[in-house]
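Hi there,

I know you've been waiting on this one. I reran it after we fixed the sequence typo, so this is the corrected version. Both the input and the resulting structure follow.
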Amino acid sequence: MTLLNLLYDWREELGIELGIAHVNHQQRPESTDEENHLRSLAERLQLPIFVAHFSGAFSEEKARDFRYAFFSHIMAEQGYTALVTGHHRDDQVETILMRLLRGSRLRHLSGIKEVQSFGHGQLIRPLLSFSKSDFPAIKHFEDQSNQEPTYTRNRVRLEYLPYLRQESPKLDQHLLELGEESSLLFAALFDLSQGLSATTVATFRQQTPAVQYFLLQDYLSSFADLALSKAQYQQVLTVLRTKANYRAPLKNGYWLIKDYSHWRIEKINPETDLPQPPIVLNYGEEVVFNDFSIAFSENQESAYLLPDSSALLIRSPLAGDKIQLGHFHKKLSRLFIDDKLPLQDRHKALVIEQHGQIEIVVTSDKTYLRKDPKRDIMRFSVTIVRQGDKDVRAGY
């Protein structure tokens, strides 16, 4: 209510248009009266108001997720560029202490951010420098559940902080300074690592273990819904420091993918990441498989030649695959390793069989052709074009 009054009084000077977004959690008898009061207030101030009602099993986390999803939706639907909330200095102190109690990482001890990206704009908290005692006495709603020690934040506010302040009267200031120093530390890391390609394996491994530790933290900070445990975090660090090729799930649909030169974390949809089923390609036809367009026709220049027109099998690589290279066979897996082919390229390789033998293997930048010491007259050709490329790859 304090924030609404301030923004309303200064709306012309700030050049802003206001709207009120309210979530009725429907957990208290007073919630309906509060909603009605806000609707009346919005009508009196001639401000638009948007209301949502929470339903289902209640928890602090679910309620928070519901609120911010609703706020983001209203911003996008109505064209608002900022969500402004009334968090204040006391909330900041409580948040930092709560994160300490929960064993949060150092970067999260900076507390609540004053400005951050949110939805289609920004989330702004302009009152973080002020304590609740600094606010004028205006009509506001008092949630009686705030006095119940059921929730962690309530216990921190009602029990832990008052007790600790007896031991350290400047506790609030010390906690805020801890948060500020943590924020400055990561700002300094960001400044010092500008131009540093942390996802390049060689660059990452050139750094000291301490720098690697925080570079990974900085990288992970861009994935809001990927909360790795400390054990999982340490495992990722170990992989980046020691493994050559690696591809494994983390959590919430995210995978860690690493090859000889680069690493990354990305969300993978298992349904779309499964290998494409094999396709039979008959003479005179053309098919599309993964990123390739494959045609089987008469002898053409710049095409891979075959002695007969028997059907081809187009597929992904399989365990145990071998290709003939003159007087010997070699496993595709060994070829890929020897050529330091990234894992994702191995999975997306194109394999072409005829008469049960692998004739052609195509990856993102390499082609492997079967070499038979005795070949018949070549009358038929296979042309392969990567979708999006203008030129046929020479030599197929």
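Quick highlight: The chain has a mean pLDDT of 87.

Best,
R. S.
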